[in-house]
From TrEMBL, chains A, B:
Domain of life (superkingdom): Bacteria
Keywords: DNA-binding, Transcription, Transcription regulation
Domain HTH lacI-type: 11-65
Molecular-function GO term, any one: DNA-binding transcription factor activity
CDD domains the record matches: HTH_LacI, PBP1_LacI_sugar_binding-like
Protein name: LacI family transcriptional regulator
InterPro entries (UniProt xref): HTH_LacI, LacI/GalR-like_sensor, Lambda_DNA-bd_dom_sf, Peripla_BP_I
Pfam families according to UniProt: LacI, Peripla_BP_3
Keyword Transcription: yes
Length: 340, 340
DNA sequence: GGGTTTTCTGTGAACGTACACAGATTAGGT
DNA sequence: ACCTAATCTGTGTACGTTCACAGAAAACCC
């Protein structure tokens, strides 16, 4: 009868040591290429590693080293973020680029339910990551408490959580909204409205605030349509509402590019030309901006840069450097295209 | 002089034991809520855990348990996938949903460079994950070899890697392309062309093959425009090429919804009406499909379902169940809207 | 050739947990 | 009151590394 070695155990550093006729210590030195190992020992060990198919066990390593060389990238509310938010991919890649350069493994953790929250909290607590980057749409995030309690090096991206000492990297939504609204006013529009979205989030509220800042005395509360989400369909609805309230409206600031695309659709339906009858500007400079006809004038959101800076912030903390208590705000250039 | 406990060491199970006046074993039983522990001990231990702020160390646990309760989700070529591929988010959420239900932590690993490939390979080797789901656009993926060598439970999603025994979950691109082309033919179109994209990938090549299958004798090689990527801009280019070759073209199968959106743009520019002059169908049923005017008739790709099945496949292997050697193909219903 | 430095190697302890085992206590049935 | 069974608890070992330390060997200098 033949015994089937259905699942052979993984080779350990000890197996390599006996195979090469040396001690564990010497093998360890070769694996982490430290000095003070003879040429003969080195070649023997390398051959042995190849022969037994040795790969170091990270769990054991991070247990004794007290670190994992990994940084978590937490995405909360993925339904809205992954499927609608065009920035998330850029942030992710920016963060990965920086972490990769320092040989940190980025692991993204998706939180999609209460169960996920608990599990991710356990994961973070368990020493599987040395730091964490959080992209959250929520003002108050239960995972924030866990991170604070663990004193885990962290960085928020997008906008800061309420009442949290954690550092963050973001953009100045209010100033950017003000800037692009002023630019729209300079085109000579007289009746400017806004489709404001996601007012329950900092970003949404700030964009509306920037809009009113820009209009000053000329602000007309009736020309603000409020919709729940940064989506195409909410853009359609919001624009329809504005047209009903003022058929002569000639300028619109949409809270996001997706909203702007929806507004464009509503205007087309209503027989208005853009930018002829109505000038419209968006926010994000996402892939939406070039998919519409005409292309959108919008505020560029430096997604990749946000990811990079967040990663640098976490790496800095890992190196023991003190980080600025205030958040970092990145520049948001205005991209002027054809829609206004 | 006051000593500042700048970074207090994390409490261990041993600290809890001392605090509660019991042994490590009993604490362990409480933490993993096993039976055979008295009510008094339990309350004392729970209080002690709270007091010293104990959180179990996963690295130590997975070292002794020889498993990590985590499954990797590898995304290769994120530039094209995250930013253009509308399916990735759905796959990710589907996989997470299933894994979450079994209390597995899903960790996504992004491969964006050679350096990343090596690091991810080390990460997988190191015992940080018990299994892996791979979403790759590449036919030949270096990470595949690593996984095979490690005998790590795995599942490919999208389409199978070449010459690999690893199980996969996907759709039948060829049959789906054939089906929707036939549906387009049934609308009475006489001169049907295709904007074929990404012919270096299985999906791209299969979609073209399905198209020629459907046309049979009526296939006209001149009416196939080949473009490199599944993108909007390539769609514009491809459609322009088709219009040049046959100005009377009245039906188009676009290799993806993004390509179809580009084609629509080109047709609008050329003054053709859709679906009046030209009928057009896409592939993916992505968010593009409802953003265009008119909405796209397309092949629905069950992204969420693909993720679910891939996760189930990996979980099955972890439970020791034998998996079907052949891949699993999911249904792809045709969604008929206004563009044809 | 003796002493000092440099290079190389092996050993034991530690990291924080789970688990098997043994021992102690309590409960249950005659 | 005794025996058996059930319940509860503590101890030692193992998981696979890294690191400090102690020696051994080689190299170098007067």
């Amino acid at each position: 009868m033949v015994t089937i070695p259905s699942r052979r155990k993984r080779a350990t550093i000890h197996d390599v040591a006996v195979e090469a006729g040396v001690s564990r210590g010497t093998v360890s030195r070769v694996v982490n290429d430290e000095p003070y190992v003879s040429a003969s020992a080195r070649t023997a060990i390398e051959a042995a590693i190849e022969k037994v198919g040795y790969v170091p066990n990270n769990a054991a390593r991070s247990l004794v080293m007290q670190r994992s060389e990994a940084v978590g990238f937490i995405v909360h509310e993925p339904h809205s973020l992954f499927l609608d938010d065009p920035n998330i991919g850029g942030i992710l890649l920016g963060a990965n680029t920086v972490l990769s350069r320092s040989d940190y493994q980025m692991v993204s953790l998706v939180i999609d339910s209460q169960r996920d929250t608990d599990r991710v909290a356990r994961y973070l607590s368990g020493g599987f990551v040395d730091g964490v980057i959080i992209v959250s749409a929520r003002r108050e995030d239960p995972i924030t408490r866990v991170i604070e309690k663990l004193r885990l090096p962290a960085a928020f991206v997008g906008h800061p959580p309420e009442q949290s000492p954690l550092p963050f990297v973001g953009i100045d939504n209010r100033a950017s909204a003000r800037a692009i609204t002023e630019r729209l006013m300079q085109t000579g529009r007289q009746r400017i409205g806004m489709v404001a979205a996601a007012l329950d989030r900092d970003s949404g509220a700030d964009r509306l605030a920037g809009f009113t800042d820009a209009l000053g005395d000329r602000f007309n509360p009736a020309l603000v349509a409020r919709v729940p989400l940064y989506t195409f369909t909410d853009g359609v609805k919001g624009m329809c509402a504005l047209l009903e309230r003022d058929p002569l409206i000639d300028g619109v600031f949409a809270a996001s590019d997706a909203v702007a695309a929806g507004a464009l659709e509503a205007l087309r339906h209503a027989g208005r030309s853009v930018p002829g009858d109505v000038g419209i500007v968006g926010f994000d400079d996402s892939s939406w901006a070039l998919r519409t006809q005409p292309h959108l004038s919008t505020v560029h959101q430096p997604a990749f840069g946000l990811g990079e800076r967040a990663a640098e912030c976490v790496l800095g903390q890992l190196r023991g450097e003190e980080q600025p208590a205030d958040g970092i705000l990145l520049e948001t250039p205005i991209i002027w295209r054809d829609s206004a």
